[in-house]
Amino acid sequence: MSASGAGPEPEPRPAVRTAHQCREALYELQVFLDGECGVTLEQAITVHLEECRPCFERAGFERELRAIVAASCRERAPEGLLDRVVLRLETEVVWESEIRLDPPGYRGI
Ligand SMILES: [Zn+2]
């Protein structure tokens, strides 16, 4: 048994986008937008947003949403604005639909 030159080669992969990173970034996004996260986390999310387009767009949308909510807290929100925002949120989220199978029903022969 000889394993010459077959050692594990660590591949340096800077800025790998993984689902885990996206999940983490979106999870911390609220704190990030509040400006309440630490410098390390803020940098990590900023770097991720620069590299990850979906997360960047999501962050932009969240920021826009916050601006609307903040404005509507100070003033009276225009009629139907909240509904439109909620509608837009719902269209972006893919909801799991429950599939109902109707029982075929037995016919006694
Ligand atoms: Zn991402």
How much helical structure, as a percent, in the residues? 55-70%
Our Rg estimate from Cα atoms comes to 24 Å
Order of helices and strands: HHHHH
Strand content: under 5%
Give the names of the bound compounds.
Answer: zinc ion
| Main structural class | mainly alpha
Arithmetic mean of pLDDT = 75
Which stretches of 5+ consecutive residues score pLDDT under 50? Answer: 94-100
Largest sheet: none
**Large-scale geometry:** flat
Number of distinct beta strands: 0
Number of domains: 1
3D architecture notes:
The chain has one domain. The chain contains five helices and no strands. It has helices spanning 19-27, 29-34, 39-51, 53-74, 81-92. Helix 3 packs across helix 4 (53-74). Residues 94-100 have low confidence and may be disordered.
Q: Keyphrases for this structure?
A:
109 residues; mainly alpha; binds zinc ion
What is the secondary structure topology, with strand pairs?
Blueprint: H1 19-27, H2 29-34, H3 39-51, H4 53-74, H5 81-92
Brief write-up:
It contains five helices and no strands. With about 110 residues, the protein is an all-alpha fold.
